[in-house]
Amino acid sequence: MENISAFDISKVIEDAKSIITNPVGFYRNLSKTGGFVEPLIFVLIMAAIAAVIMLIFSFVGGRPVGIGILIVMPIMMAIASFISAGIVFLIWKLMGSENNYETAYRCVVYSMVILPISALLSIIPFLGLIVPALWGAFLMITASTEVHGLDKQKATIVFGILALLSVFINMSAQRAANNMEDQLGQIGELTESMKDMTPEEAGKALGEFTRGFEEATK
Q1: Are 18 and 1 in contact (CB under 8 A)?
Q2: How many structural domains compose the chain?
Q3: Tens digit of pLDDT for each residue in 98-144?
Q4: For the chain, does the N or the C end have fewer beta carbons within 10 angstroms?
């Protein structure tokens, strides 16, 4: 890939299309050097698009997340890109790669093309977690073989396991968040209904709610 202006939006679109339609070819031709600016701009744009999608969905779903997500999410994803690249860099080093952190960063950042797609899929429970994790693993396996020259079977095992762990952890976290949201809703309903109860009725209702909460969190 030739070095071009980091602010060339047409190049960002071209790269995004290439990663989605021909990931093997993209990583095979990926430049291992060229600085951090161009890939950083890429992740900022992908994160901004994802933030817009999430903002729209939040209003449609009746739970606005706030326009601040348009600023917060790109910043968070930029920071996450450097941290994620550091982790994957260590993994690739342990697997025998001779490439440096910059190469790892470029590999990881371009895999973040999945951010807008993940945002689109988030409307479907758990699908927004499973598909990006599996696709991300596939892209890292592809980068392992095409950029780092590592064994495909070994890369598949390593990143496959990491993807499954990611899916399990994120699904557990989302399930816990959903349960907590339901419980908070019930607390609001209970508080409202207790206004018209006698102290004895309120105590009984609170006891039943507490027992139900304990059962739900087991």
Answers
A1: no
A2: 1
A3: 999 999 999 999 999 999 988 888 778 777 778 888 999 999 999 99
A4: C
